[in-house]
User: Which sequence fits this backbone?
């Protein structure tokens, strides 16, 4: 086993490999002398000298581990320059290995600052030029230029309240982007403007070892198909697992947006009114076994916003979070194929006031097929009404709802036989027929699934039973 840590003017490879060999030998010796049952059965007892051997092995192993951790720590932490003038007007915090640029409203070239720092540290080993965090909170700078950071690298980049920042050049991280693990934009900014949006996502695509991207982009209205593509260098983003986007003006999630991000596990999109999720928005190039969480909650999405065949070529199990969008139904043409494609696929409808009419008959008539795949689905009806043939009212028997309140029941507590007259060939509709919301009866004759209401203010009452 070998590890290469060669840097400019310095090579830690030999030291690191010796330490790794030390740890391996420690593990082998400890196993032989202390844990091997054949050895213990043969010896029956351990004399004083053998206790000494075990103690020495433990001490050696701990020392090797301590030195190894120290070397790793040195590798991950940059060293601040002794003179503050080198970075001015930015500041270096030695205790956190952070370089902060802001918050004073001074307009200057960030590129000149980092290239001056690169020249100052040119004779230093590479680990001393690797810092933990870049915090940029300057409210006056408008542009992140090409080759912005010179030879200085960071594990985390945070842009916070950079009110004037409008553009990040495609090759802003050309030389040291491979070190970035997390990239965050938060607070007021002008990034995402249509004329520069492609450059922004090109820059993000160049971060070969990125794990998490979190973007708050008030100006973003749309982002490109194939938003994250393999750059000319050919380095795929094989560790990219989480993408979070808050863009109030965003209206569309485009086709193939995440096509090459094979490790992606969580996508969150927040918009004031997301109007369209295109049919191939969540298609991927290669299959995977891990679950992809797609969080589209709180977007005020119309029920027609998700196109047919969406999620049909994700090539991995999907947990789709659609809560709190005001939906009254679940479109069969869109979501039945998703549920049937993979039994591990799940749709979460928490907080949507479903009207359990014939439009959702396709679900309710197949409870054993879909019960585990559609969760937190709640039907909403007028409080006090809906007395079915069983004589059970669809209300909470223990709660008196106030004026304007409505009753809430879990979809899987409804009697599916009441949906027999719904026409499956007319998208679940059958003229003006509306099924009575009659609850299933337990073996004791008690209705199941009651126990909640939705007040006029939209707050749920007691937790519903499943």
Assistant:
């Amino acid at each position: 086993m070998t590890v290469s840590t060669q840097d400019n003017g310095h090579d830690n490879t030999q030291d690191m490999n010796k330490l790794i060999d030390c740890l391996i030998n420690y593990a082998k010796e400890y196993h032989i002398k202390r844990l091997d049952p054949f050895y213990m059965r043969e010896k029956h007892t351990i004399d004083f000298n053998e206790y000494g051997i075990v103690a020495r092995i433990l001490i050696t192993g701990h020392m090797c581990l301590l030195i190894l951790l120290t070397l790793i720590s040195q590798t991950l932490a940059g060293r601040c320059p002794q003179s503050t003038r080198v970075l001015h007007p930015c500041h270096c915090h030695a205790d956190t290995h952070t370089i902060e640029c802001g918050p004073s409203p001074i307009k200057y070239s960030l590129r000149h600052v980092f290239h001056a720092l690169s020249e100052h540290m040119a004779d230093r080993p590479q680990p001393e030029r690797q810092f933990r965090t870049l915090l940029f909170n300057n409210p006056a700078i408008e542009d992140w230029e090409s080759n912005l950071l010179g030879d200085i690298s960071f594990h985390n980049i945070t842009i916070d309240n950079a009110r004037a920042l409008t553009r990040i050049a495609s090759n802003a991280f050309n030389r040291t982007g491979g070190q970035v693990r997390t990239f965050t934009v938060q607070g007021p900014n002008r990034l995402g403007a249509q004329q520069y949006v492609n450059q922004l996502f090109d820059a993000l695509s160049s971060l070969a070892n990125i794990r998490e991207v979190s973007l708050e982009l008030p100006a973003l209205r749309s982002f490109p198909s194939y938003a994250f593509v393999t750059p000319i260098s050919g380095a795929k983003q094989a560790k990219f697992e989480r993408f979070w986007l808050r863009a109030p003006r965003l209206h569309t999630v485009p086709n193939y947006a995440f096509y090459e991000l094979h490790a992606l596990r969580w996508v969150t999109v927040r918009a004031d009114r997301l109007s369209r999720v295109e049919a191939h928005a969540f298609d991927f190039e290669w299959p995977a076994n891990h679950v992809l969480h797609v969080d589209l909650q709180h977007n005020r999405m119309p029920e027609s916003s998700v196109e047919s065949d969406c999620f049909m070529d994700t090539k991995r199990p999907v947990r789709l979070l659609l809560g709190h969008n005001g939906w009254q139904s679940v479109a069969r043409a869109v979501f039945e194929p998703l549920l049937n494609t993979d039994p591990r696929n799940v749709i979460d409808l928490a907080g949507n006031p479903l009207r359990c009419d014939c439009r959702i008959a396709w679900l309710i008539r197949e409870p054993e097929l879909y019960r585990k795949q559609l969760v937190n689905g709640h039907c909403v009806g007028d409080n006090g009404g809906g007395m079915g043939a069983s004589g059970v009212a669809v209300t909470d028997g223990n709660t008196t709802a106030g004026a304007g309140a409505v009753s809430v029941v879990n979809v899987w507590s409804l009697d599916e036989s009441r949906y027999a007259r719904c026409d499956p060939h007319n998208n679940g509709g059958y003229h003006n027929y509306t099924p009575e919301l009659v609850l299933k009866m337990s073996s004791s004759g008690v209705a199941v699934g009651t126990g909640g209401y939705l007040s006029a203010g939209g707050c749920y009452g007691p937790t519903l039973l499943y």
